[in-house]
Prior knowledge:
Blueprint: H1 3-11, H2 29-35, H3 55-76, H4 78-91, E1 97-100, H5 105-119, H6 130-143, E2 146-153, E3 164-169, E4 180-181, E5 187-189, E6 192-194, E7 200-206, E8 223-227, E9 231-235, H7 253-274, E10 278-281, E11 318-321, H8 331-346, H9 350-354, H10 362-403, H11 410-413, E12 416-419, H12 428-440, H13 446-452, H14 457-474, E13 476-478, H15 482-485, E14 492-494, H16 515-519
Antiparallel strand pairs: 1-12, 2-3, 2-9, 4-5, 5-6, 6-7, 7-8, 10-11, 13-14
Amino acid sequence: MGLFDRFRRQSAGGPASSGLTRLPRSHGPSGLRARLEGAMAKRRLRGWNPPLENINALVASGGPRLLARSRELVVTNGYAANACEAWAANLVGDGIKPSSLLEDGDLRDKVQRLWLAWTDEADADGLTDFYGLQAMVAREMFVAGECFVRLRPRRAEDGLTVPLQLQLLQSEMLPFEKTETAANGNRIRCGIEFDRVGRRVAYHFRRRHPGDSTDQGAVIPETVRVPAADVLHVYRPIDAGQIRGLPHIAPAMVRLFLLDQYDDAELDRKKTAAMFAGFITRTAPEEPMMGEAEADPDGAAIASLEPGTMQVLLPGEDVKFSSPADVGGGYEAFQYRTLLAVSASLGLPYHLVTGDVRQANYSSLRAELVEFRRRIGQLQHGVLAHQLCRPVWGRWLEMAVISGALDADPAAARPVQWIPPRWDWVDPLKDIQAQVLAMEAGITSRRKVVEATGYDIEEVDRENAADAARAMGLGLRYRTTPGETQGARATPATRAKPGNGAGDDTGDGAAATDPATEQE
């Protein structure tokens, strides 16, 4: 047998085959599909036929109802409300703050001071500052999945540090049902106008909130076209091509709603079980019973029972007491498992949703916090910093230069680093020691360590220098070296004076050194 004939027999799965067989042609694509368990259509999965719809179609059809249910759930459900606050507190905290990267130190300091003064005037409603607006945006992302920020230029006579303010608009202000073709030929999809190449050019906002009954207006509020350059759409895109946001609470909504109903039913059951009630059966209903009051409107006779009462029953009468069913032993385990599923759906640690840390320890808390904060860091830099903070910074610089509040080139002053809030760990001493070792080994820099705490390193250095100068002027000395403190808090001591032996606070009789030498 020739080499060609042997190869042909092996390919056909003949006797000389090495076990590698080729599927028949009839088993090609259909055979591969049959091997995918999720694509099977047998009896087990026959009823599972989800529609192949784009996420934009799902949002357009179910967005309003999903949004209404989400807002009601966060207001009425304790777990949802706590999860919303925990989400916003960890995502924003006390604010994602800028650190200018200008090389000119004087100009950088002026920019930072001007920004700090403007943050108190940033809110168009005058209720909070810029970092408070960040927290409101974070809450809207949890509840509605998106938030719109309108950049509002102001007049010079308004007296603002920089003539710019921010106005937050809820998701309901942009109608989901507005999908049409504009007069200029652009497409309007879910209230957002796109040009012929797919760029956002405008947003068609309602003039009034559709659910605000205190703002009297038309039944169907008219819309106004706002250029896209003046609007920031902050949302987390989870699918390619997604144009509107989905509530972050959406995967857990049904469980939270049903669990709330279950808890209400159990509360009513316990309330009924706590009631002491008896039912009397008698053969002569026309004869009054001891302690019997007037019949209620339905005609049922009611007898009261007082402490120390000895009720004498007539012949033929019998008393039966109610015995409602109790909650049962599986209530706690069921609650725990359901809330675990809710926490997983929300992407939040269990103790942040429920406040329950009974089964937690340092290792378990640290393990779940590391993963959770990795997700939060992704949203901080990829969503909030990119979609909100950087555009606001750029527009603020332009308005500051135009108004004369800042003498600089906006393009040259644009480089900035946004510093998220610091993380508070379960055992901060171990983390600080690890950071010190990392700096000494050259693994990281002091700038990154300081910025990880949520502060600007230059501001920290200026404060340290001012504290050192003040301490030197007052004759104070601080023990700051790791060998002296060994994890203890640094304590001040007065400067040693010649001849009196003062200043010996080391415990071994060593004389105090000069503050300048100690700082070095």
